[in-house]
Design a protein that fits this description.
Structural class: mainly alpha
Number of domains: 1
Helix content: 40-55%
Order of helices and strands: HHEEHHH
Largest sheet: 2 strands, antiparallel
Strand content: under 5%
Length: about 140
C-alpha cells in the first residue's frame, strides 16, 4: 500500500471542485453497519458515510495510531476535551473526525462528538440523523 498524505489528497480532491459545488453540499452516501461494542437498549445503529469506511480501509492503521496517541496524551496531560477546527468549509474535518471517532470508540472509554459549527453543521447529516434542537 502506497503512503499518501491525507491532507494533501483531500486538498487535491477539493481543489478540483468548483465554488458552486461547495455552496450546496449533498448528503454523504450512507449504509448501515454493525457496531462492535455492546449497544445500550435505547441506542440505535448509526448510518456511517461511505467515505468514512473508505478512509478506514485505506488509512485505518494511521487512525488507530492517532487514537492511541490521543489517549496517551489525555492520560499524561489530564485532558478531557479536544477541539478540532479548520479555516474553510468543506475541507473534510467532519469526515476525518468521524473516522477518528470510530477508532477511539473501539478503545476503552467514551467518545463524544459535538459539531459546534453554527453556520454549517455536517455531523448529524453525515450520520443520517436529524436533530430537532441544539448542537449536532
Amino acid at each position: 500500500m502506497r503512503e499518501v498524505d491525507v491532507d494533501h489528497a483531500l486538498a487535491r480532491a477539493y481543489a478540483q471542485r468548483s465554488a458552486a459545488e461547495h455552496a450546496a453540499v449533498p448528503p454523504a452516501p450512507h449504509f448501515e453497519v454493525e457496531v462492535e461494542a455492546e449497544p445500550r437498549p435505547e441506542a440505535r445503529a448509526l448510518l456511517w458515510p461511505a467515505t468514512v469506511r473508505a478512509l478506514e480501509r485505506e488509512f485505518g492503521e494511521r487512525f488507530a495510531r492517532l487514537a492511541d496517541a490521543l489517549i496517551e496524551a489525555r492520560a499524561r496531560q489530564h485532558l478531557k476535551v479536544l477541539l478540532f477546527t479548520s479555516c474553510h468549509r468543506a475541507e473534510g474535518r467532519t469526515t476525518l473526525l468521524l473516522t477518528l471517532a470510530r477508532a477511539l470508540a473501539r478503545r476503552p472509554g467514551r467518545t463524544l462528538l459535538v459539531d459546534a459549527d453554527l453556520t454549517g453543521p455536517m455531523l448529524a447529516r453525515q450520520l443520517g440523523l436529524r436533530p430537532e434542537v441544539g448542537l449536532d
